[in-house]
Design brief:
Layout lengths: L6 E3 L3 E7 L8 E7 L4 E4 L5 E8 L2 E5 L5 E4 L4 E4 L5 E5 L3 E8 L8 H4 L1 E3 L2 H5 L1
Antiparallel strand pairs: 1-2, 2-3, 3-10, 4-9, 4-11, 5-8, 5-10, 6-7, 6-9
The structure holds (2~{S})-4-acetamido-2-azanyl-butanoic acid.
Length: 124
């Protein structure tokens, strides 16, 4: 997938879309590498997402209830309430993500509800 349109680069992560809507599975599946030392502010308004950590250390802060959850290899989280959250990568964090409805791959990050925590992005 490297170098194809299935690989999406953002300031705080790279994501490889292994399965998309066009693959006909009813969900999409992504391998996402969040870079060490970054924070990513995420709100999937239109999708449910389950995420499994295969490597690295980090934290998920749920902005809706204020709780902070450690992330380590073997951790799974499921966003069943369109929870607004911040993903903090203490080290490089390798995640496997499943979305329903499936992403088409055409979404821009604003429409996915992904807002990297950068001053430029926050300024508008
Ligand atoms: C960790 C996480 O939520 N990854 C989601 C996939 C990524 N935003 C993508 O493929 O664009």
């Amino acid at each position: 997938m490297a170098g194809t349109d299935r690989e999406v680069h953002a300031p705080t992560f790279v994501s490889r879309r292994m399965l998309l809507k066009k693959d006909g599975m009813g969900f999409s599946s992504h391998g996402t590498l969040l870079y060490a030392g970054t924070e990513t502010d995420i709100w999937y308004k239109h999708h449910l997402e389950a995420v499994y950590c295969i490597d690295g250390e980090g934290e998920l802060e749920n902005l809706d209830d204020g709780r902070v959850h450690p992330i380590m290899p073997g951790t799974m989280y499921a966003l069943d309430l369109h929870d607004r959250h911040i993903l903090k990568a203490k080290t490089d964090l390798r995640m496997i993500c499943v979305f329903t409805p499936a992403l088409t791959g055409q979404e821009v990050h604003d429409e996915e509800g992904v807002y990297p925590l950068l001053s430029e992005a926050k300024g508008g």
